[in-house]
Amino acid sequence: MIVDVSEGVIIDLYEKMVAIRQFDLKVKEMVERGHRILYHSGIGQEAVPAGVCAQLRREDYLVPYHRGWGYMIAKGMDMRRILAELMGRVSGYCKGKAGTHMACLELGVLGKTGIVGAGLPVAVGAALSAKIRGSGQVVACFFGEGASNTGAFHEALNMAAVWRLPVVFVCENNLYDMYTPYLEVTSVANIADRASAYGMPGEVIDGQDVLAVYEAAKRAIARARRGDGPSLLECKTYRWYGHFMGDEHHYGGYRSVEEVEAWRARCPIRRLRDYAISSGIPAHELDRIEERINAEVEEAERFALESPEPDRRVAFEDVYA
Fold first, then answer.
1. Where are the domains of the chain?
2. For a tag site, which of 14, 185, 232, 290 has the least CB within 10 Å?
3. Helix (H, G, I), strand (E, B), or coil: what is residue 167?
4. Residue 268: which of 102, 74, 56, 57 has the closest Cα?
5. How many CB atoms lie within 10 A of CB 261?
C-alpha cells in the first residue's frame, strides 16, 4: 500500500516491528534452551501491533491478548522488564507475579486475561470510564478470530455501540483457532462483516502491510476520540509457528508447507524494508536499527537472568484479600 507518511513514521514502524520480532525470537530461543516461559509466538504478525499502537497516545488504554508482548513493546514497555516478568523475576512489571498476564498502568496496558475473549468486556469497561471522566482516552482492544465466536465478543460490541464508547476492536485473524481453520467454525468470511449488526464501521485490512494497518487505525481511533463510537478492524495475518511452544505441526498436520511458505514470503518487516529503501531511506540506516535492537534484546536477556526471583512472602502483597 502506498500512503503519504513521513520518513520518521516509516523508521519508527520499522524499529517497532524489528523489536517485536527479535524479542519473540529471543523468547523462543530461551524456551528451547529450557527456560520456563509461557510462549505463544507472534512471529509473522508484527504489523498489527506496530501499526495500531503507533496511533495511540501514551495515556490511551490497551487490552492485549495471549500473543500480547508485541503490543506491550509497541506501546512503549521496556523489553528488559517484560522479559523479567515472563521469567517470574522481581524486576518485572508486576514483580514476577503475573508472567505473561502482566500490566503496566502508567502506559495504559491493562493486562492480558487467561480466557479467550475475556479482554473485550474489560476494554468496554475502560472505555466507559474514559467517557464518564471525559478524559479523551481511547481503548484499543486486541483479540483473535476465535474470540469473535464467544458471547463476550457480541455483548462487548453491542454495549460499546449502544453507549458510543471510545474503543477500537482489533481482530488479529491468523486464520486458525488453534488447529481449526476459522472458516470451519465461523459463518462469515470476514469477522469485520459482523460490525454492521451493531451499527459500527467494520474494515478488513491486509495485516501484513503495516502502513495499511497504520492508516486504518488512524481513522478508527480518530472516530473514537471525537465521540462517534467504536469500530471493528480485522487484520488478516498469519503466525509462522505453532499455536504454542510444543505445537510442532508448523508444516504439516493442519497446515501445508505451501501455505506456510506463501505467508512467510509476505513477511511484513521485509515488505516495509523494501518500501523504505524504495522511498529513499538508505539500507545501512535500517541495518543500524537492527543492530541496535539486537543489542537491546541481548541486554534484556542479561537483565532478566540476573534479576532475582521473588521471596515467597511477596505472594501476600498487592492483593485484594
1. 7-308
2. 185
3. strand
4. 74
5. 11
Given the C-alpha cell 492508516, which residue does it identify? Answer: 215
Residue range 210-230, pLDDT digits in tens: 999 999 999 999 999 999 999
Structure confidence by residue, pLDDT tens digits, 235-277: 999 888 877 666 655 555 788 888 888 989 999 999 999 999 9
The Cα–Cα gap between 203 and 229 comes to 15
Task: Establish how many alpha carbons lie within 13 A of residue 152's alpha carbon, considering only the half-sphere containing its beta carbon.
Answer: 19
CB 213 within 8 A of CB 52: yes
Dig out the grid coordinates for 83 from the structure.
522479559
Q: Output the nine-digit C-alpha cell for 129.
A: 470510564
Q: Could you tell me which of 174, 231, 233, 249 has the C-alpha nearest to residue 208?
A: 174
Residues 109, 105: Cα–Cα separation, whole Å: 6
What's the CA gap between 208 and 123, in Å, rounded?
A: 25
Q: At what angle do helices 7-32 and 268-278 cross, to 10 degrees?
A: 150
C-beta neighbour count of 302 within 10 angstroms? 12
pTM of the model: 0.93
CA 176/CA 121 separation, integer angstroms:
23
**Domain at 7-308, CATH class:** alpha beta
Would the CA dihedral through 163, 164, 170, 176 be positive or negative?
positive
Residues 6+ apart with CB under 8 A from 159: 124, 165
Contact in structure between 238 and 263 (CB atoms under 8 Å): yes
